[in-house]
Design brief:
Length: 156
C-alpha cells in the first residue's frame, strides 16, 4: 500500500530542483505548548523569511480553543492550524496532516522545524518526551520534506 511511509503515494513528486530559485518553501512548526523551546523554534522559522505555519495538536475541541486563546494572547504573529486528535495520538496525526499538505501542494518543499530540548546528562533524556525524534523518523521517508531541529539548552 502506497502512502506517507513509502513516499510513493498519489501526488509523490520527484525531487528535481537543482537551483535555489526553483525551491518553494513552507515552514511548519509543530507547537505543543507556548514554552521557550517552541518560541525559539517559531522565531527561527520566522527569521528564514519564508511562509510559516504553526501546527498544534489538541485532544479535545475545548483544549484546542484554550490554545487558540493562548495564541491570541501571544500576539497571533504567525498562522496557526489546530488539529483535534481525540485518541491522544501525536505522531500519526501530524504526519498525516503534513502528508495531506504535501499532496495538495507537491510544488512546495515542506520544512518541519522541531523544538529540541537539550539536557545536561543523558539520563535526563528519559524524563523528557521523545516525540520530536519519533516525528523526525516518521517524516524522513516523505519526499520534499526537510526536518530540522532548533536546540534549546537547559541552564546548567
Amino acid at each position: 500500500m502506497a502512502g506517507p511511509a513509502s513516499g510513493t503515494g498519489p501526488g509523490a513528486v520527484a525531487e528535481s530542483e537543482e537551483q535555489p530559485e526553483e525551491v518553494r518553501h513552507l515552514t511548519i512548526v509543530p507547537v505543543a505548548t507556548l514554552d521557550l523551546p517552541s518560541m525559539r523554534a517559531l522565531a527561527y522559522a520566522a527569521s528564514l523569511r519564508q511562509p510559516v505555519l504553526a501546527l498544534h495538536l489538541s485532544p479535545t475541541e475545548e483544549e484546542a480553543e484554550r490554545f487558540r486563546c493562548y495564541w491570541q494572547t501571544w500576539g497571533d504573529h504567525l498562522p496557526l492550524e489546530v488539529i483535534v486528535s481525540p485518541h491522544r495520538a501525536i505522531v500519526a496525526p501530524l504526519v498525516n496532516y503534513i502528508w495531506s499538505l504535501h499532496r495538495l501542494r507537491p510544488d512546495l518543499t515542506l520544512t518541519v522545524i522541531l523544538p529540541e530540548l537539550v539536557v545536561r546528562h543523558w539520563w535526563h533524556r528519559i524524563l523528557h518526551n521523545r516525540t520530536a525524534a519519533r516525528l523526525r523518523r516518521a517524516l524522513r521517508p516523505l519526499p520534499k520534506v526537510v526536518v530540522t531541529t532548533v536546540p534549546f539548552h537547559l541552564p546548567r
